[in-house]
Structure formats: C-alpha cells, structure tokens
Amino acid sequence: MKEKITAIVLAAGQGKRMHSKVQKQFLEIQDHPVLYYSLRCFQDSLLIDDIILVTGNDMISYCKNEIVGRYSFTKVSIVIAGGKERYDSVYQGLLACADTDYVFIHDGARPFITEEILERGLAGVRETGACVVGMPSKDTVKLSDEDGFVGMTPERKQVWTIQTPQIFSYDLIRKAHESIRKKDMSTITDDAMVVEQESGVKVRLVEGSYHNIKITTPEDLDVAEVFLKKIKKM
To answer: Does the pLDDT at position 124 exceed 90?
Structure first.
C-alpha cells in the first residue's frame, strides 16, 4: 500500500518585522503572493498527496478564494485557523490530518522549496522518522554569555542553520506535540525541538538550499526577487 504524505503549510504569522499592513506570506513577489510558491511546489510534487493550509481565522476566506481557488491548488484538502503561537498552529494542522504516514511541516513564508529538497527530506524521514532541512552555516557563530560577551565559539562545520520543511513520521510528531503541550512550551522554536525533548529520537539533518530563505524583513523581499529572476532563467 502506498504511504500517504501530507504537507502542513503554516501561513498564520503576523510578520511584525516586515513593517507592513499585509502579512509577509501574502506580500507579492513578481505578481504572486509569497505563499503561492511553496504551495505550487507541493501541488506539483508527485510525493505529496494532500495539503493542509493553516492561517489566521480572519484569512480563511481569503486563502480559499484568492489563493487555493484562484490558482487551482486542488491538493489543499482544508484551510483551517491556527493558534496563538506557531506550535499551536502546527498542532491544529496535525489534528486535521487523516490517515497520514508522514508530514512535511513548512513555513509559508519560505517560497523557494524544490522537488529535490522534498525528495531528500522523504529519504531522511523514511530512515529515521524525523529530519529537518537546513544548510551548514557560512559564518562563524558566537554564543554569548549572560553579560553579552562571547561565551564560546562552536566549530563552524558543526553549525547548521535550520529551515523548513521539517519532516516526521505522523505518529511520532503527533504524540510528541500532545506530550509537550502539558509542559512549559515558551522555549520551543521549531518542531524538531518538540521531538528531541519528548521522544528521544535523533533528528537527522538534511541538505536544503541557500536559496530556501524565509521572508522576514523588507530586505528578504529584495533578495527573493533576485532569486526568482535567476530561477526563471534556468
């Protein structure tokens, strides 16, 4: 029997650092909203069976009509409201999954995922049950102490910047989220941390792309324009 794979796409962020009245995932890059590009990748991928789109309660109608309907994203099985924090939105997405074997959890503000990234992620999750997309850091990283001085400098070859999608066995990530919701979640920044803390399963690092940026500030939009022009020329 073919395994079922679901993409949970998060589009509920407020994007305060963008300094725009329009949420970052709905800003446009070359006449399409940021969110369009990742949904297009999942829609066109032979690996993905369905998509759950998680957005703000006040944006559900907009997403259904102006994004899912307008661009014929037929794999989007449901558009649901997220929660106060990112991990709340992920949990709502997990609850909406139906008979799923693996989930790709992706930030809708990362427009430049590719089929190759999805393939590497699926290979990784089949092997370990949990993997995250990322890239080795190009920069030297310093960890500060409480007084703002350098506390230590980790070896650069061991430092990765983490991206999305983050891919998990559905049962593993669902149980981990249910477990951690009974505890303090204030320090949780991604789903890998949930699995690391609640399951003890080691999370594999899988190569993403240096193009797989997250649109967070106005400068990121400028970079995204350059990337998209380059991609269209290829």
So the answer is: yes
